[in-house]
Specification:
Length: 136
């Protein structure tokens, strides 16, 4: 008989073209904190882990900055979005707009009008979904 394995989502990694712009977006604007930063001179890249709490308790994002990249990364057809919960999507979208964040799709009701969703772009063009948590 096999033993049950418990999995927990740890982090997702995205490559960024301008680490400072990405940190400004995710830390200053989105309220995340830098959990750790590692530079790898031999590999010519920097990793920065960001999140809303300790890595051993919350899911994080790993920003990877490759020092020698000269052009934007191709997102591919398979990439969808990174989702963030907010209590009020409409208010969050207004705030992000005042911060100069590019809006992809304004706040609109989903799930038969019981939940609001909105979409914005981060500095590298990754799609960020904002949603109001489901009442489970």
């Amino acid at each position: 008989m096999s033993k049950k394995v418990n999995f927990k989502l740890d982090h997702t990694m995205i490559r960024v073209a301008d680490l400072e712009k990405s940190l400004d977006f995710y830390v200053r604007i989105m309220g995340m904190i830098v959990l750790r930063k590692n530079e790898y001179p031999d590999g010519r890249f920097t990793n920065v882990f960001i999140g809303y709490g300790p890595e051993n308790k919350t899911t994080t994002i790993e920003l990877t900055y490759n020092w020698d990249t000269k052009k934007p990364y191709d997102k591919g057809e398979a990439y969808g979005h990174i989702a963030f919960n907010v209590a009020d999507v409409s208010a969050a979208m207004k705030y992000l707009e005042t911060e100069g964040v590019i809006i992809k799709s304004p706040a609109k009701p989903m799930n038969h009008g019981t939940r609001m969703l909105g979409f914005v772009f981060d500095p590298d063009g990754y799609i960020i979904e904002l949603n109001e948590p489901l009442n489970n």
